[in-house]
Amino acid sequence: MEPEAPAPEPWATRLIDDLDEAARLLRDGGVVAFPTETVYGLGARFDDPAAIRHVFAAKHRPADNPLIVHLSDVDQLPIVARHVPTSALELLHAFAPGPLTVVVPRGAAVDSLVTAGHDTVAVRIPAEPTARALIRAVGAPLVAPSANRSGRPSPTRWEDVWEDLAGRIDGVLRGRISELGLESTVVDCSVDPPIVLRLGALPLEELQRVQPAIRLAGAMDLAAGRSPGLRHRHYSPRAKVIPVEAFEALPATDASGMCLVLSPPADPHWSTRFADVRVFSGADEYARGLYAAFREADARGLLRVYCVMPPADGVGRAIRDRLARASESG
Ligand code: TXA
Ligand code: MG
Fold first, then answer.
1. Ligand 1, from 1, 40, 68: best to mutate by most atoms within 8 Å of Cβ?
2. Would you tell me which of 19, 63, 101, 271 could form a disulfide with 186, CB atoms 3.0–4.6 Å apart?
3. Residue 209 and residue 6: Cα distance in Å, rounded?
4. How confident is the model over 67-82, as pLDDT tens digits?
5. Distance of CA 148 from the midpoint of ligand 1 (Å)
6. 2 found inside a domain
7. Within this chain, do residues 107 and 160 fall inside the same structural domain, yes or no?
8. CATH code for position 305
9. Residue 63 sits in the same domain as residue 180
10. Which residues surround ligand 2, an ion (CB under 5 A)?
């Protein structure tokens, strides 16, 4: 891992409600967080090295972990991509705008800081209208990693961004709660067949409908450095994350524990066994509420978050992936 860039001096961070104000700041080289349907992103112009350095420093992000470039429309692709493989075009045609990121050959206009020296660039067109309107108003694509401090759960509410980054960035564009709550699915389309580098809000089954040969990244791909993000510590609250397959595997009681479940257990008094509980009505709601629950557990000073895992299909597969990573590093 390369050394982190030095932290910036304390910054006067503005809470912004006016899209044009956010666009002005970004156009002039500022760093501004904004809502997307997956999680909030920390935006900067894709072609401004000083602003991009500020993004890495504000997040304490290792310089070897590349950023996703966000576009307002597919017609911005030629600005950032050297060429767009057919697999990427097909996936974008099916799922953009939406929670899909495609990795394609890097265009000359993309600073190598963005791609951490890689020959490829990750590109996404967010579905959240505010995000696309912002990119249009800036008039240039925006890099945007999740707007959390590195290692913390991604922010799904503007308040989460504020908690992690106030005093370190120029502004936070206040928007609604991220509807999906999990990061985009990252697919490497620079190889054939394409490889899923990061599971995310767009389920594998959906991708396979369009690209039947698509496969999940394995140990060999990691070793080849194809998925730089997965080397780093991720998504963890301070509380210890304890994934279990079934409610029955949990301790009889834990006054310092939060419990996340998909459907309420048979025992009518089950909730009194924990300091706090969350019942999600399905995997989508689980995805939407997971990171907020992690942050709330920390805010309450709880020590453990028990997570009864959803089945390993649809978005459940990505939730299980995040829970496994959070428990490794917790
Ligand atoms: O939903 C999302 O994707 C959010 C919102 C804000 O769009 N963004 C996000 O960005 O999650 P970030 O930086 O937290 O995660 C980007 C992931 C990392 O795992 C990174 O390693 C990977 O994308 N990535 C970026 N460029 C890549 C490249 N050229 N090759 C392989 N992986 C790349
Ligand atoms: Mg992130």
1. 68
2. 101
3. 45
4. 999 999 999 999 999 9
5. 13
6. no
7. yes
8. 3.40.50.11030
9. yes
10. 146
User: What does the pLDDT read at residue 330?
Assistant: 42
> Collapsing DSSP states into helix, strand and coil, what is residue 301?
coil
| Separation CA 168–CA 179 (nearest Å) | 26
Angle between helix 19-27 and 129-138 (nearest 10): 50
Q: Residue 38 CA: which ligand 1 atom is closest?
A: 1
Given a contact cutoff of 8 angstroms between Cβ atoms, the answer to whether 32 and 166 are in contact is: no
CA dist 254 and 123 (Å) reads: 43
- Per-residue pLDDT reduced to its tens digit, 145-200: 999 999 899 999 999 999 999 999 999 999 999 999 999 999 999 999 999 999 99
Q: Is 85 in the pocket of ligand 1 (CB under 6 A)?
A: no
- Count the alpha carbons within 13 Å of 254 in the hemisphere toward its beta carbon: 15
Same domain, 124 and 254: no
Q: Name the residue range of residue 250's domain.
A: 240-326
Parallel, antiparallel, or unpaired for β 304-308 and 254-261? parallel
| pLDDT tens by residue, 165-174 | 999 999 999 9
Residue type, 53: R
Q: What is the CATH number of the domain that holds 121?
A: 3.90.870.10
Of the pLDDT bands very low, low, confident and very high (cuts 50, 70, 90), residue 234 is low
Number of domains in the chain: 2
